[in-house]
Amino acid sequence: MSRSPLIARTVPTLRRAIDNLRKRKATIALVPTMGALHDGHVSLVRLAKRRASRVVVSIFVNPTQFAPTEDFGAYPRTWKSDIAKLAAEDVDMVWHPGVEAMYPEGFATRIAPEGPALAGLEDRFRPHFFGGVATVVGKLFTQCRPDFAIFGEKDFQQLRVVTQMARDLDLGVKIIGSRTVRERDGLAMSSRNVYLSPEERQIAPTLYRAMKESARRIKAGDAIASAMAGGAGLIAAAGFTLDYFEVRHAETLGPVTSRKDGPLRILVAARLGSTRLIDNIAV
């Protein structure tokens, strides 16, 4: 029978709980989320359970990573179903702070990441985003003091940014990327998929098909520019407005010109109606 996780809403409560775990020599894995949990999040929790003796899941919709034109107010919040999912997975603790706990009056410190945060992908369209992510994740790491932190590969640039930050700042946490969980038709699971109309939902898997086709052509020896142009054409023909569709070095996110430039990753961001989707695959 599943048990309800401990829910901490203030830093002192969280600190006491983490101190108690540390006194018992527990290893801790943190799964940072913004709630609206789906099977992709559940896969992160299951990976965390394999890595550590105790699992903490944070649920915090972080306002600093949303621009004024983005969907902070409308972002899905499904607290009751989120807790039910986490209880079913025997999660030990949920860290659920309010905005005032994370950003109290007078808060004046930000982390400004560079390197993979300035790769010209998400940062080109959302220049505020990675500063907000790095700051809140840095706080989560110092609050929860995890041995491991689990992030999905769907947000691949974010994974690289957080990995670099943890290394550069000697935060003592090992970042683990978890493979993207997909629907049966290939669409990457995302909390924002609920915004898609039924017609858009039928079109959305085109992103995955286009990436696979471009990857196939690159592996077959086609020129990268030609292979990527073909995939971009498929995406545009399906009705998307493309932000980017690029192949990059899988570790640095730097530009590449051939398969010989290192491990490759195809990354895409595109809008379908009012919904912006991102995805990526290895080549």
UniProtKB/TrEMBL annotation:
Reaction(s) the record says it catalyses: (R)-pantoate + beta-alanine + ATP = (R)-pantothenate + AMP + diphosphate + H(+)
GO MF annotation terms: ATP binding; pantoate-beta-alanine ligase activity
E.C. number(s) listed in UniProt: 6.3.2.1
Enzyme's top EC category: ligase
Keyword match Repressor: no
Entry binding sites for beta-alanine: 65
Biological pathway: Cofactor biosynthesis; (R)-pantothenate biosynthesis; (R)-pantothenate from (R)-pantoate and beta-alanine: step 1/1
GO biological process, one term: pantothenate biosynthetic process
Keywords: ATP-binding, Cytoplasm, Ligase, Nucleotide-binding, Pantothenate biosynthesis
UniProt-listed CDD domains: PanC
GO CC annotations, alphabetized: cytosol
Recorded family membership: Belongs to the pantothenate synthetase family.
Role: Catalyzes the condensation of pantoate with beta-alanine in an ATP-dependent reaction via a pantoyl-adenylate intermediate.
Further remark: The reaction proceeds by a bi uni uni bi ping pong mechanism.
Protein name, entry field: Pantothenate synthetase
Gene source species: Bradyrhizobium neotropicale
